[in-house]
Structures are given as structure tokens and as C-alpha cells.
Amino acid sequence: MTFRDNAPRFDRRRLLTGAAALAGGTALAGVAGVSAAFAKLPPNPFTPVPVPPQPAFKEGVMELAGTKLYYRDTGGNGPVVVLMHPATGSALIWPYQIPAFVKAGYRVIAYSRRGYNGSEPADRNNGGVPSQDLHAMMDKLGVGKFYVVASAAGCSITIDYAIDHSDRLLAIAVSSGSFGDIDEPEYKIVSQTSRVKGFDEMPAPFRELGPSYRAANLEGTKEWAELEHKAINGNRLGPKNANKFTWANFAKIKTPTLFIAGGADLAAPPTMMRIAAAKVPGADMVIIPDAGHSIYWEQPEAFNKAILAFFRKHRK
User: Fold this and answer.
1) Tens-place pLDDT, residues 99-131
2) Would the pTM of this model clear 0.70, i.e. be above it?
3) Which ranges of the chain would DSSP assign to H, the alpha helix?
4) Domains of the chain (ranges plus CATH)?
């Protein structure tokens, strides 16, 4: 028996001609099937960026109710930007941000939360409320209104603060926040299904740096890992939010809010951040292609540019 293939035949010449037409008539270049528009490689966003010279800053340990927190303060008369570190970081992780924000005219304050580099460990029986620590620190420094830049775990504290104190905030930028404390059934399902079992036990550089960055910048990966290793100096578990993370509470936030997601973030993929961003009135969102969970470190120029533009938009 002879098998007859009645499927339509593809004419290679007609196919390539059609491709050229779809590309606006651009002639195919180099490799068959690739138009001239795609013949040039795009710039590599992970080209190593040298750590810039750091501005002068005051550092110290501030005594607050129930704890002592290490902080750095560049001083000056500009608007204040507070940097809120992730769970894998501390006040030390912002060498790409502090110079950029100072150059833009801001006074920058970075500090380590309870249990992180330079600060006292959290009390296992009374871990405190990080958003209240932030409030107390700003009061003690005499800061009225301010901006916040947060990464990962720092985002939850920033959102917690914004629910209660939108009147103190000029604008906030929350990057790579998975918001694991959100008490909404549909969000919990998305959060649980986005991670494989054992994800939290995987090495921190794998979880928090995107694969493209790790492949392109071995030295930067090493430096990030060293800062991560230095970050925790004692118990950091036990602090609680002041508020329940519900959509009703997210809707109370009156602060201009920018959500920043990394396109290759395994811990807080853009879909999760879109869901949260949609619940904050008037929130904006930016996605940085190829970036993992540590956008501030992997693509600092894109990270700083997006935030500074947003802050300029809302600067008073």
C-alpha cells in the first residue's frame, strides 16, 4: 500500500518572501529567516558595572524601644530617601543606589533591621514591629515626609507602614516583593504554585540572582554572596506586621506607589506583583527584562533610573 501525504507543501522561497513582507519589506540578512532588524545583538544589560565612589555618610547605632539599629545617613538638605533591604541583605547592600540618589539631590538613609548587620538581634519572645521601628527612627532623626525604596522583604514593611502612615510618605518604590503575608485565598494559591518544594532551602544566589546575571558576572555574583553572608548577625525571626495584609488594607494606601518586577524573578515573578499592584489605588508598575530577584544589584542603572523618574514625577 502506498501512503499518500496530502498535507500542503511549503515553498521555501515563498515562505522567506512572506517573512520579508511581514518585516516591512526588509531584506533578510545573514542567516535565512532572520531579518536585518534582528541581525544585530541587543546590548547586554549585565555588562559589569563598577561600584561607584561612595559619598560621605554618618553612621551609628540608634537606640529605639526594645532594640538598637545600625544606620547610615548621607545628610544634607534634600528630600529623604530611606532604603529598605531584603532578607538577604542589610544596610551594606546599596553601593549602587546611594551615590545615584545623592547625586540627584536626595539625603539617603539606609539601616539594618533587627537581626541584621550592625543591629541587635530580634528578641525571640518580642520581635517588635519593623514598620514601627521605621517610624520611630524617622521621628528620632527629625524627618517629616520621606520616600522609600524597598527590595523583597523590605517591601512588606514598606506596605505595612504605608497602610498606617501614608501621610508621612511622598512616594514609595517596592521591588521584587512576594508579599508572603497577604491573607487572600487566590493570592496564596498563586504564591504557593510559583515555587517548587524546597525552594527556600536552595542557595541564596540561585534564588535571588537571575540566571543571566550569574552567567554574565561571576565577580558580581561573588560580591553579592559575600554581602548576603554578612547580612545576618543574630536572630531575625519574630518581628510582625502591624496590619493584616488584605486587599481592603492595600486599598487604604494613598501614597504614590511604584512596583518593580524582574522578568526572571523566581521568588516574586511579575504576575504576583501585578496582582498586588492592582490593589493599590493608582499604582504604577515597571518590569525589568532578564532581572532576577535582586534588581538593585543586577541592573542598578535601570533600577535607579526608573525610581528617580517616578520620584521626580511625585516630588514636592
Assistant:
1) 999 999 999 999 999 999 999 999 988 999 999
2) yes
3) 12-22, 97-103, 130-140, 153-165, 185-193, 204-208, 211-216, 218-231, 247-250, 270-277, 295-298, 300-313
4) 58-313 (3.40.50.1820)
